[in-house]
Amino acid sequence: MVNILGAFLPGITDGLFSTQGIMVMLLVAYGGAMWMFLTSAPKVHTIMVSDLIIAQEFYEGLLNLPVADVPLHYYYNYDQSLGSAMLDPIYTGSRGNSPVMQENTGLWYQLRKNTQLHVIGGASLGYKNSQRHVCFDHECLDDLLLRIQSRRLKYKIRSENPLNFLVKDLQNRVIEMAEAKT
Fold it and tell me: Where are the extended beta strands (E) located within the chain?
C-alpha cells in the first residue's frame, strides 16, 4: 500500500507514515473526537434550592419536567476530580463525605432538547420564608417562567432585571425564583 501511494505521491508518504506523521494523525483524530464529544454535550443550568424534596415535587409534579440522565462529563466528575480526588483523605481531613467524593448529587431534568436543569440544595429561604430557587442564568429562568405560564400556574413577577418571580405550588407554598447577579 505504501509503495502504491508512494508512486503517486513521492515524498509525502515518507513523512506521513513516519513516527511523527502517525503521532500528528492521532492527535488530529483525538482533537476531532473531543470536539464531537463537547459539542454534543448538553448545556447544563444549575439551580440552588432551599429544599430538594419540595423542589422535586415542583419540577416533576407541577412543571412535569422529564427526569434526565446525568451528562457524561458530570457522571465522571471530570471538573471536580482533577486534583483533589487523587489526594488521600487523611491529608485533606475528610472522611469520605466531601463534595468531591459524593457523586451526582441533586436532581436532573430535561429542560429543552439539548438543555438540562441540575437542581442542588444549599439556598436559604427567601421572601417571607418562601422556598427559594436561585440561578445565575437568566435564560434558564426565562424557560422556567414560560413553562409556568404554559401550565397556567399563579405567578407574580417581582423584578425583570435581575429576574425574580413568585409561583405557588399545589400545597399553596410560595416558591421564589431568583436570578443571582454576579
Answer: 43-49, 107-112, 115-121, 131-135, 155-159, 164-168, 174-179
